[in-house]
Specification:
The complex is a heterotrimer of chains A (about 350), B (about 290) and C (about 250).
Chain A: H1 12-74, H2 76-82, E1 92-93, E2 98-99, H3 102-133, H4 136-151, H5 154-181, H6 196-221, H7 224-232, H8 237-266, H9 269-274, H10 292-299, H11 306-338
Antiparallel strand pairs in A: 1-2
Chain B: H1 14-50, H2 55-59, H3 73-104, H4 108-122, H5 125-140, H6 145-170, H7 173-181, H8 186-197, H9 199-214, H10 241-249, H11 254-283
Helix pairs in contact in B: 1-11, 3-4, 3-6, 3-9, 3-10, 4-6, 5-6, 6-9, 7-8, 9-11, 10-11
Chain C: E1 5-14, E2 17-27, E3 32-36, H1 43-50, E4 60-68, E5 71-72, H2 79-85, E6 86-89, H3 101-111, H4 117-130, H5 134-137, H6 151-164, E7 169-173, H7 181-194, E8 199-203, H8 207-213, E9 216-221, E10 224-230, H9 231-236, H10 241-247
Helix pairs in contact in C: 3-4, 3-6, 4-6, 6-7
The chains are: A mainly alpha (about 350), B mainly alpha (about 290), C alpha/beta (about 250).
Chain lengths: ~350, ~290, ~250
């Protein structure tokens, strides 16, 4: 075919561009200077920034480690003195230096489970109402109001419980329960209003928002085609919710419930204000009780002597471990449903 | 194949209809039962609190036991001091951790930090109080606003960190890449561009964390401890609004009960105000996404 | 045995948008009728109106007369009853993941208060055989979950589930569009068998599929039924120009 055409070394148009380039040289050198100066001058600030950020993240680790360290260190005295007997001793006697934590463990467990008993049907009911039954316009308002419940501080719940809830319990609810269900042994004895029942009820109100919000999230995560599949078989709305939604969301709901339990176990102020603060184990819900968090709240600042303080710290350590396990379990369950998304479970 | 008669499927039985309506009724009932205490609490706060709020309440310190009058001014200011300290601790560490998680921590180490922050979030506030007591009160040998601020600051970190991480992750990568392409160093990009884009959401997270710790009482019981008098020295025991409410509520004095309601009303206005402001600004789409 | 469907003057709305305009159509019993048309023409909406699934979408409603056999779908009938008597298979297979294969097929029976275990066993077996799935799952009925099957098997499971409650009509909304070609041809074979017992209405965007399985075909365009005739005629000698344009691929 002949030779390949030679590359044009001097096309007139290109020559013009080359000439223009000569003019642009000063600007080019300035840009070059800037580009060259950045890499080295940014390395140090970048490094410093990275260190600052790493330190912030490390602080989270450090804080948790410090917390655990202090709890363990300051409870050594009590741990060595009482050993495992600490946890099943019934006797809380600061005067004689005898510390048994069973009444508080009992109180914490009973008040928390009572709260769950009341809160779970309420929370699941509200969540189902909001996601499956509520008219579109009301949805935002009602869910906002339920979330508002989570914003109310514990001490205000306690205040309301002392002056509004307890009198209602004392004057109406407890007499009624005593008459009707007194034979069971759970509703006997004098009706003070304050006591385990009041603590359980106020705790229930406080944990409803958490359980409800997680339940709502898992219900919404159930794909629409599941609901349609059930409806197409000829199901009523409730049957559709039961078989197509709740069934699929079971695991996540359990996770939410366990998270609520974790909250209830550690709740301090409202419970302290209404539970009666008596370290006794009683069958009746009308009787006063005491929880792990409450005894710390009431007695820590007044604790005389190292052993007393150490016993209280040991209770704090136990509380820490229990809530740690419960919360971890809950997160595992919820993540398995929502696929690892960040679920806002606080406030 | 079609050997047997089709199953006798009756038209919808009465029981199924009843169950359906019953379930609806139950769900509505639960909604009422859940919202009733909310309404009741707010109504009582207003009724019982408004009466006791007056100029004295907002400007005077408590009177000795048994005397009427006096106020919670020192508690309101004390809370302010403690919350200031806690914000100075919690917000920078929280935002820093959040930046780490979003920009540097998309790996195993980051997962561990995230998990640790979650753990910290779940620790009961009273246990944090014990730790702050051990770490600050014991060495100093006295109660202080500082120790209270430390306790509350620690509690703020996980909330702020998580909000910061979420918001930073919502900023599209293309913005970061555009900045890098222009030769802007990473530290500058993160602060001036990515963080600024996410700023509305981060501020929201900080406000939510603030609102949450503003109402906390338990950790202050043996850190800030409370004070009947004016105190602006962060190294001395300081009054705090939730603490004062607690002490007054469990006291046997009617006068103090009234003031407890008033204090509670002020506290709830602050907190609900913050939460509502957050809701309004985010729902109006002021979240600067991309 | 299947029953016929008579549709008179059916209109359907999504909010304010009229998406089905005055549809008139008679579907004969024990035949397969295909509904074709471009995206958005209303074919899915039409089929979902037949078993009152359309109104489950917020702000959606339908008016008109639909008679399935003797039953007036939009008359006094309870929608729950309507849906029990008309079966539906969806585009994306949606077995219940928390139930076993047996549980999935028996779900409709349990809903309707069926308690007799032996009869349920027989019905589950029969439905799975009808859906050509029995041989593949008979050893794992209770052990495997509904979601652990392959896509094609899942869809056949959904068909078995729909058939278990003895519907008179089976509606299928693009049942094979999410499946691979082999599963698709299995489903098509199945549809051919099913018409002996049921009346089948199948929505499809695949014209070859309509030609393969359906005796009658209705062509929808922009909410109206343009032409409805024997499948042969629609594809070889359509009466309306728009139909011709669609089946020859000039649009859609």
């Amino acid at each position: 075919m002949g030779e390949l055409p030679k590359p044009a070394t001097s096309i007139p148009a290109l020559a013009k561009v080359d000439a223009a380039k000569e003019h642009r040289k000063p600007i080019a050198t300035v840009l070059e200077k800037i580009r060259q100066s950045h890499p080295s001058s940014s390395r140090i600030p970048d490094g410093i920034f990275r260190i600052i950020i790493l330190l912030s993240a490390a602080s989270v680790f450090a804080i948790v480690v410090l917390v655990v360290w202090e709890l363990i260190a300051k409870s050594q005295l009590s741990l060595h003195q009482f050993g495992i007997k600490f946890f099943y001793g019934h006797d809380w006697d600061p005067v004689n230096g005898n510390f048994g934590a069973m009444p508080f463990i009992y109180g914490t467990l009973v008040s928390s489970f009572l709260a769950l008993l009341l809160a779970v049907p309420l929370s699941v009911g509200v969540a189902v109402f909001i996601t499956e039954m509520c008219p579109q316009g009301l949805r935002a308002i009602i869910s906002f109001l339920v979330e508002l419940l989570a914003a109310i501080p514990s001490v205000i719940y306690g205040l309301w419980a002392i002056f509004v809830l307890a009198p209602i319990l004392r004057d109406y609810v407890e007499p009624f329960l005593g008459k009707v269900l007194g034979w069971t042994g759970f509703f006997s004895g004098p009706a003070y209003g304050l006591g385990m029942l009041a603590a359980g009820i106020i705790l229930a109100i406080m944990i409803v928002p958490i359980i409800a919000s997680i339940t709502r999230e898992v219900l919404v995560a159930v794909p629409q085609n599941q609901r349609e599949a059930v409806l197409a078989l000829g199901a009523t709305r409730w049957e559709m919710i039961r078989m197509g939604v709740l069934r699929n969301a079971r695991i996540g709901i359990v996770g939410g419930v366990i998270l609520g339990l974790g909250r209830a176990l550690g709740e301090t102020m409202a419970v302290t204000m209404v539970i009666g603060n008596r370290p006794e184990i009683a069958k009746s819900l009308f009787a006063p009780g005491y929880t792990m968090a409450s005894v710390i709240a009431n007695e820590f600042s007044e604790a005389t002597g190292d052993l007393y303080l150490s016993a209280l710290v040991e209770i704090g350590l136990a509380l820490f471990i229990v809530t740690l396990i419960v919360n971890a379990l809950a997160r595992l369950l919820v993540w398995s449903i929502t696929g690892g998304q960040n679920v806002r479970a606080n406030a | 194949m079609h050997s047997m008669a089709p199953p006798v499927l009756k038209p919808i039985s009465l029981w199924r209809r009843f169950a359906n309506q019953g379930a609806t009724a139950f769900a509505i009932l639960t909604a009422i039962l859940v919202l009733a205490p909310l309404m009741a609490i707010f109504i009582y706060l207003v009724i019982k609190g408004v009466g006791a709020i007056n100029w004295d309440f907002l400007t005077k310190t408590p009177k000795p036991v048994g005397e009427s009058g006096g106020g919670m001014a020192n508690a309101i200011v004390g809370s302010g001091v403690i919350l200031l300290i806690s914000s100075l601790i919690g917000i920078p560490l929280g935002i820093g951790s959040g930046i780490y998680l979003a920009e540097y921590g998309r790996n195993r180490l980051g997962d561990m930090v995230r998990f640790t922050a979650d753990v910290l979030n779940g620790v009961p506030s009273i246990v944090i109080g014990i730790a702050a007591y051990s770490l600050v009160v014991v060495p100093q040998k006295h109660f202080s606003a500082l120790s209270g601020g430390v306790a509350l600051g620690i509690m703020m970190i996980p909330t702020v960190a998580r909000a910061t991480e979420e918001m930073l992750l919502m900023v599209p990568n293309s913005i970061r890449e555009a900045a890098f392409g222009l030769g802007i160093p990473k530290w500058r990009t993160t602060l001036s561009i990515t963080l600024r884009t996410a700023s509305a959401g981060v501020i929201t997270g900080c406000m939510l964390a603030f609102a949450r710790v503003a109402g906390e009482t338990a950790p202050l019981l043996f850190t800030a401890f409370g004070n009947q008098f004016w105190n602006l020295n962060p190294n001395q025991p300081t009054a705090a609004l939730p603490l004062q409410i607690f002490v007054y509520a469990i006291s046997p004095f009617d006068e103090w009960h009234k003031q407890a309601w008033a204090g509670a009303l002020i506290l709830i206005i602050m907190i609900v105000g913050a939460v509502a402001a957050v809701r309004i600004t985010t729902s109006r789409g002021r979240l600067k996404g991309a | 045995m299947g029953v016929g469907i008579e549709v008179k003057d059916l209109n359907a709305w999504y909010g304010k948008n009229l998406s089905l305009k005055s549809i008139n159509m008679t579907v004969p019993a024990n035949h397969v009728t295909a509904v074709i048309g471009p995206s958005g023409c209303g074919k899915s909406t039409f089929v979902r109106c037949l078993n009152r699934m359309h109104e489950t979408i917020p702000d959606a409603r339908a008016e008109g007369t639909v008679k399935v056999g003797e039953m007036e779908v939009y008359g006094d009938a309870d929608p729950v009853d309507v849906r029990r008597r008309i079966g539906m298979v969806f585009q994306k297979p949606n077995p219940f993941p928390t139930m076993s294969i047996y549980g999935n097929v028996a779900a409709g029976l349990k809903l309707n208060g069926f308690r007799n275990r032996k009869q349920m066993d027989e019905l589950v077996e029969r439905s799975l055989k009808l859906a050509a799935l029995w041989d593949e799952v008979k050893d794992n009925l209770h052990k495997k979950s509904g979601a652990s099957l392959s896509g094609g098997q899942q869809q056949r499971l959904c068909i078995a589930r729909a058939l278990a409650v003895e519907p008179e009509v089976l509606l299928m909304d693009e049942p094979a569009s999410a499946l691979d070609p082999i599963s698709t041809s299995k489903i098509e074979e199945l549809i051919f068998q099913l018409k002996q017992h049921y009346t089948v209405v199948i929505v499809t965007h695949n014209m070859q599929q309509a030609a393969r399985v359906a005796e009658l075909t209705g062509f929808f365009l922009m909410g109206s039924l343009i032409e409805y005739d024997k499948t042969e005629k629609i594809f070889t000698n359509p009466a309306d120009k728009r139909t011709e344009d669609y089946v020859t691929g000039r649009f859609g």
